[in-house]
Every structure is written in C-alpha cells, then in structure tokens.
Here is the input.
Amino acid sequence: MSVKNAFYAQSGGVTAVINASACGVIETARQHSDKIANVYAGRNGIIGALTEELIDTNQESAEAIAALRHTPSGAFGSCRYKMKSLEDNKREYERLIEVFKAHDIGYFFYNGGGDSADTCYKVSQLSETMGFPVQAIHIPKTVDNDLPITDNCPGFGSVAKYIAVSSLEASYDVRSMAATSTKVFVIEVMGRHAGWIAAAGGLIEDQGIPVVILFPEVEFDKAAFIAKCKDRVEKFGYVTVVVSEGTHWPDGKFLAEQGTRDSFGHAQLGGAAPVVANMIKEELGYKFHWAVADYLQRAARHLAAKTDVDQAYAMGKAGVEFALAGANSIMPAIIRTSNSPYAWEVGKAPLSEVANVEKMMPMEYISEDGFGITAACKEYLLPLIQGEDYPPYQDGMPAYVTLKNAAVAKKLDAFEV
Amino acid sequence: MSVKNAFYAQSGGVTAVINASACGVIETARQHSDKIANVYAGRNGIIGALTEELIDTNQESAEAIAALRHTPSGAFGSCRYKMKSLEDNKREYERLIEVFKAHDIGYFFYNGGGDSADTCYKVSQLSETMGFPVQAIHIPKTVDNDLPITDNCPGFGSVAKYIAVSSLEASYDVRSMAATSTKVFVIEVMGRHAGWIAAAGGLIEDQGIPVVILFPEVEFDKAAFIAKCKDRVEKFGYVTVVVSEGTHWPDGKFLAEQGTRDSFGHAQLGGAAPVVANMIKEELGYKFHWAVADYLQRAARHLAAKTDVDQAYAMGKAGVEFALAGANSIMPAIIRTSNSPYAWEVGKAPLSEVANVEKMMPMEYISEDGFGITAACKEYLLPLIQGEDYPPYQDGMPAYVTLKNAAVAKKLDAFEV
Here is the structure.
C-alpha cells in the first residue's frame, strides 16, 4: 500500500459535533502516517476541492486538532452546494478527480447528510471509470437525523439534548409566572420535513411538564390544537408548545408563511412560534412568550450530549480505519445493540443503499392525537441525549479553537463553480 | 430575642439563580432555628401573603432545599404584582401586616427588583406605625441589572454568560456557512430599557467575532446600522447582530412594532430580530438567520455563571444574618473590591436609597459609534460571567427539584386581590 493523501470536507448545515468527526478523521490518519501522508481539508466544503482551495491540516498542532473535539460548527468552512447529476455536469466530477490526482489524494472523506452521501457515491463510481481510483467514504452528519441504516446521525443527539433541556428550563419559568402572568411558552425548533428535533421536546413530559408538540408530519388542525392547549392550561395552569419550523396547514403552506406584511407591504417570514403564540392569545386570551432557537440549537456545543460527541468521533475514526482496510463507497454507521443499558457499535453501510434514501420518523413515534410522542419514541431518544461533555472554559467563555487553515499551493488552472 | 417565623417571597420575572437566594435564606434560617422557627414562602409571590396562601418550607427535606441552588426559576411561584402606593391602597399593606401577625412572622424577605424594594421599604415603615414591627429585608434579583448601590444584580451574570456563549457559538456557525450561504446572524435579547444584556454579546469581539450591538440606550439609525453591517461582512465575510428587544426608532417606537399585520389584518408583534434581519436582506441582499432567546436566556441554569450562583446564595444568606443582627429596611449588596483578580464582599444598602432608584448603563460603556462596548464595559462584565456551576444530571437531563409546596393552614378571612 503506497502513501497517499486524504481529502476531507464538511457539507451542509454544521452541527455541534461535526468537528469531532473531523478530529476523529485527522487523529486517526496521523496514527497511520505511513499510509496517509496528509489530510487536506476543503475550504468551505466541496467547493474547496473544485476550486483547489485545500487546507494543509499537517500545519495544525496536535493540541489544535484535539480541540476540534469540543469546538462546534465547521472548522474548515462548510457549504450548501449540491453537485448536479453526472449527466448534467460531468465536468464537476471530472474536476474533482483532477484535483485529487494533482494532489495525490487516494481517500475522500465527505462529512454530511443525504446530498453528500450521493456525491460521495458518484465520486467512487466515476473515479474507477476515470482510471484514478479514490476510496470514497461518507461520514454521517445531520441534525435532521434522516440518514438510513445508521440508528441515528451525529449532530442530532446534541440538538435533542439542547431542545429538551431548554424546553424544561423555560417550562419551569412559565410555571413560576403562570398564576398572574405568562401561561403559554412556545419554542420553535428546526425540522422542515421531519419532526425528530421537535420530538425531543416531548422528553420533558416525564418530568411533569404539560407539552404540546407540532410536527411537520401532522397537518396542522387549529381547532384541535387550541382545544389541547386550553385543556393543558386548565389542568396544569400553563402549557409549553414545541413547534417545528416545518409545521404546515393541510394545503402545505407553512405556519410561518401567514401572509404577514410589514408597513411597506413587504411579505415577511416571521417564524412559526409567534404565529402559534398569537393564535392562542386570540382564541384563549392567555399571555404568552415565545422563542426561536435557530442556530443556537445546532451550535450549542456547551450542552452537547456525550453519546453524540463519542459517536461523531467514532464515525470519523471508523471512516479512516475502513478506508485503510480497503473499503470504498461505504458509510460507517451507528448500530444500536441494546436499549437498556444503551449499547452501540460501529457498522458499515454501502453507499448504494444510503444515497437518495431519506429515513422518516416512524408514525408510531407520534401519539394518537398528533401532539405528543409515544413510549417507543422516548425509548429511542433517551439514550441519544445521555451524558455531558463540557468544553474547557477560559475567563468564563468556552475555549473553542480557530485553526490556522493554511492553504496548500495550487497546481491546476482556475475552475469556476 | 424571641422565636419568630420568617416570610419569603419571589417577585417579578424569575431568573436562573433566584432559587439559589431562596436556598441561602432557608438554609441559613435553619441554622438559627432558635430564632427563626419556620420560613413561610408566598405561593406565587406577594399575592400568597395577601391571600394567606403560605407554603410551609419546614416540610421540605434538606436535600430538596439544597437542590434549589441548582434549580432555575421560582420554586414557590412568582408574580407580576406591584402593590399600589400607601395612599392608594393602604388596605393591602394592612392586610400584609395582619397575615404576618396571624402567623407570627417577624422577618420579611422579599426577593426581587426595583418594585419589590419599594414594597419592602413601605412594609418596614408601616409595620412600625401599626405596632407590629417586622424586619423587612430586600434580597436583590433582576436580570435587568438596574438596582442601585449593588455592583451587579444576581441573575444578570448568568444571562450575560448565556448570551455571550450562545452568540459565540452561533457566530462560529455563521462563519462556517458564510462563503456560500448565511452571512448575517441576528440574536434578540432581553432588555426593554437597559442594554446590559445586549452588552454581554459584545464580549465575543475579543474572540475575533465581528459583532454589531443595538442598544435601547441608542436611537436606531438605520443608515448607520446598514453601513456598519456591510463593512463587517466585507471585512470578515459575515456579521453577528445582537439586538435588544427595547431597540427603538428616534420617535420611541420599538423596532418590533413595525406595523406588521397578518393575513386577517391583525397587528402582530414579531420581535426585533426578524425586523432587523429582513432590513439587512432588503438593503444588502445577504442571507440571514435569526433567533429570539426569550425565556431560554433567563432560565438557562445549565449554563449559569458560578460567580452569579455564589452571589445569589450569599445575598440570601446575608439577608438572614443581617436580620438576626437586628437590621431592618435594608438590602444586602455586592461590593466589588477588585477587578483583577476579581474580588467582592457583602455590603448593606438602606432601602430608602434603593427604592425607586434605577441604575442605568453608563454611556461610557457604549462605543462611540453606538454599536459596541468599550474596554471599561468589558472590565465590568467579564468577572460576572466567570466560572461554571453545572447542575447534576440524571438520564441526560438536569435533576431540577420541584418542591412539595405544602400549604400552611389559614387563620384569617379571605381577601380579594
């Protein structure tokens, strides 16, 4: 086995633990410097490969690479850039192979969700036909938790923990105030198509909190929703509502698109939370507060789940180990072997079975009335939020790392993306 | 000194550490059971005193009371209820004294902000003229940080830490995405009249993050704001905006009140963050994300500052100790004795100098262009976010306590509030 370089890129929306996967890739590669000379990272994801903007990770100290494990977001930059199909833009795939060839790259580690799994799969196919074989390994990452085969996706567990803890804390707050003031708290969470993150809010029900969840999987029924909130407030004195950004009316229109216009007549997308909160106020008269977590939820490394951090690292590490053992066109996967006590091991999924397959939340995870989660869902979710893995702090702030991100000298002509 | 009971109540918006003050009051009182027989807590704040709904804290175990130190929000319930002036509603003050008399209450510990300091002051005055002297002690609490004399207010430091850390994490996120996607992140924070909380967002500047702050103290200048954001994005590739909910136009109208109307023509209050984000999009075309932290920021016990927790506890403890030493009509205060290393001690402020005095943020804490904080401001803020004080976790969730809150038998006729 000759010495080759590896290429690593981060794709799509970043997470609290995608850098832990990067850490797993780079630290493991460094342990095998007889086989992997350097890990080049794509500056701003796959675009960095197309434009030949490679980052020389060998210039980072062992301490800096280790600090990736506790640093949120994408240390090398990510991008939202879906490569077109082979038919529509073969030139892009060929360019990738040219860059890999020019920099002696034999391993392609692509860290992302469904789209990047598809790209990764195509690269593995094309590189063979182009006579420069590259081992393409997809490292799973997505807060949406929608990749197939793997039991869960690194990134999701930490968002789930953040939403569960934040919803619990805010519920304690509204419970304190409910007698004379706020009776309804609404928190908006990510999830345009899948309710995995919203479901995590349901974990606070077992702590005695009345919670109503709005899933993208369930068509919004205003009358039933108002009745449910009224019932909760009459019984408990208050209610917490967790609303997915993707919650929509039967005609498919998102709640957030209420035809709201500002004073200049411009359409304004204001979020689902204020829409839901105002709706309750109008129908029931309850005072409300609302929050939109947005990036805070997926960047919250300060509250990451230890399970998630461990798994993110393990996926990066396994990616390199599988590659060194000769694997190609695969994705390391998390295989749950036991619920109680929770146990998992690293599996291996062929990319042909991962690309273009979206795993939906099972309908048996949603309670019959559509506003809560079932025992089966809790059994699935609880292990994923286990454990705390705090970053180190300095002067009251987390000591996150910013890398040098030194450029590798270019060897090819420029390329427009 | 005869044995008396004490009365403790939580007032106004709750915080991540107001229960730590309650813990300080009750634990210290228990150490002096020869002087304080029981601490009765007001169910839902001062309303519980007026309606004689007292909670018997002697029925709580030592473990439960100790757990208050790490539990956010108001364990006995709080309320937004400002007692009228003595002239307008003397009957309410007299009722308070009647309840105190009926339950042999010689100590009144009122845990709140400016309004409750005023109530506390009046009770101390009236009780004497009514011939049933009660020692009235105000325990400082407010995320608004606007009480005089005390260097800072318990509750503020933890919100400041939450906003600083959350803004840092979200900034790492937008930095990762900026090359091809989101370039602007806007976070809305509490502070209708004072920019203390927004100022905490400025602490991330020293970590290399381009941040633009909108304070309620500075009239909103749209052209200057847009120019500042443009400059930051052109220099850094992205920008983080921290906007106070109280940011307003020169005519006093809040940014959040944009005359926005939903499809039914109803006025809708949508938050300052989406207004600001849409404004940047319209003027500069940058893709944005926005978050509204709302209750999450003041309930976030999972990220409390150790300094804040220690001070909240110390204020409760000192309140009881001052009372036992004979003090009346005072508030324990935090006195900063050194910036570096940070050191503080417990002082004592007469309520006559606390009631109806609001401490504003000094204008020399705001940078010349109005969009940032000065070195003096950082020097003031940094010690307040020092240290971490994590709650214990069980099965992935914080182990917060919910008390029994057993009722004390009533002795008086009903009273309408």
